[in-house]
């Protein structure tokens, strides 16, 4: 009886392993990288403001100095149109004047913060100090905002009710925006690059499917604030990924002519040497070695032993 029990237990173990293996393989291979740059080499971004927005080879990052009311931008066209996606990047703000805003968005050719379709991540310095925002304008031009400033729940279902979270200068943050086309939800997470600790995250309903976005950009198009104030720093390790099925069925969007915003000349101040932390390695941390092969081998050995024992009974 004991040997028969061993045989049946080993048979169940093998069946479970055979069921788990395809599930694990599917969950690890369903994402495809649409665009990625570590800025180790010139990313060839298009900009109408090269004195402030440029690739810095000494830092291996992309420098920005965003000023309101200039219509300045820097962008990269990507081969994407619709469906679920994850947009990630690293950012370090070395200076942000009162009233200034850093923004990195995913939009159509207009790259206007007030026009859809547009998903924008923002780091601002205003009434509530240095807080983070997720700003959305749908293809139907419905605008929604969530920020890391505490708001009571009664102000709306999308109001952030947690404690106010502020970011710091000269600290590198990893930002991730995740959009799910099936549930029509979008969320933003901000974590410290060195520790991986998440400092703020929230999501909201888009109410309609997002589509028509094919530019990753930084800039001030649509920002008509006071001039001569800046959000300065560096971006690094940009990555846009999407489910493989979404990318495979995507129809490339024709590249439209960039808007001809004239950059208003402003006073330039001598560049000073800023102490910026050394860029972190761009390689993602490797996942632990899977135990599936080991479990499979163990199950097969157990199965063999059980079968051998049953044969002895005969």
Question: What would your notes on this structure say?
Answer:
By secondary structure, the protein is α+β, with helices and mostly antiparallel strands. The protein has a domain at 39-248: Jelly Rolls. The chain has 3 helices and 15 strands. The strands form 2 sheets. Strands 1, 3, 4, 6, 11, 12, 13 and 15 form an 8-stranded antiparallel β-sheet that branches. A 7-stranded antiparallel β-sheet has the order 2-5-14-7-8-9-10, with no helix packed on it. Strand 3 and strand 4 form a beta hairpin. Helix 1 (2-28) packs antiparallel against helix 3 (292-313). Residues 3-9, 11-28 and 248-314 have low confidence and may be disordered.
What's the gist of this structure?
This protein has three helices and 15 strands. The chain is an alpha+beta fold and 314 residues long.
Order of helices and strands: HEEEEEEEEEEEEEEEHH
Beta strand %:
25-35%
Radius of gyration: 25 Å
Multimeric organization: single chain
**What is the average of the pLDDT values?**
78
Low-confidence stretches: 3-9, 11-28, 248-314
Give the fraction of residues assigned to helices: 10-25%
Number of strands: 15
Question: Could you describe the largest sheet, including whether it forms a barrel?
Answer: 8 strands, antiparallel
SS content category: alpha+beta
Q: Outline, from the CA principal axes?
A: globular
CATH class of the domain at 39-248: Mainly Beta
**CATH 2nd-level architecture of the domain at 39-248:** Sandwich
- Indicate the CATH topology of the domain at 39-248: Jelly Rolls
Number of helices: 3
Spatial gap, N to C terminus: 12 Å
């Amino acid at each position: 009886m004991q040997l028969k029990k061993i045989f049946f237990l080993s048979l169940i173990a093998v069946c479970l392993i055979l069921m788990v293996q395809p599930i694990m393989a599917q969950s690890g291979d369903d994402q495809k990288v649409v665009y990625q740059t570590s800025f180790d080499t010139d990313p060839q971004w298009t900009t109408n403001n090269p004195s402030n927005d440029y690739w810095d080879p000494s830092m291996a990052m992309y420098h920005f100095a965003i000023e309101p009311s200039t219509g300045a931008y820097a962008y990269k066209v990507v081969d994407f149109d619709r469906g679920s996606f994850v947009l990630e990047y690293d950012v370090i703000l070395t200076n942000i004047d009162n009233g200034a805003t850093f923004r990195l968005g995913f939009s159509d050719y207009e790259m206007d913060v007030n026009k859809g379709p547009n998903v924008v991540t923002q780091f601002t310095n205003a009434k509530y100090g240095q807080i983070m925002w997720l700003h959305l304008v749908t293809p139907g031009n419905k605008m929604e905002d969530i920020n890391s400033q505490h708001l009571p729940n009664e102000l709306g279902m999308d109001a952030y009710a947690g404690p106010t979270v502020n970011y710091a200068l000269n600290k590198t943050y990893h930002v991730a925006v995740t959009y799910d086309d099936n549930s029509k939800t979008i969320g933003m997470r901000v974590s410290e690059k060195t520790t991986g600790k998440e400092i703020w995250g929230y999501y909201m309903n888009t109410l309609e499917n997002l589509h028509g976005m094919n530019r990753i950009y930084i800039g001030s198009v649509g920002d008509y604030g006071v001039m001569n104030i800046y959000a300065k720093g560096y971006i690094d390790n940009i990555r846009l990924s999407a489910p493989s099925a979404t990318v495979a069925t995507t129809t490339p969007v024709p590249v439209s002519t960039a808007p001809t915003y004239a950059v208003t000349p402003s006073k330039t101040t001598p560049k000073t040497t800023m102490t910026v932390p050394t860029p972190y390695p761009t390689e993602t941390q490797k996942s632990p070695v899977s135990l599936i092969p080991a479990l499979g081998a163990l199950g097969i050995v157990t199965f063999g032993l059980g079968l051998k024992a049953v044969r002895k009974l005969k």
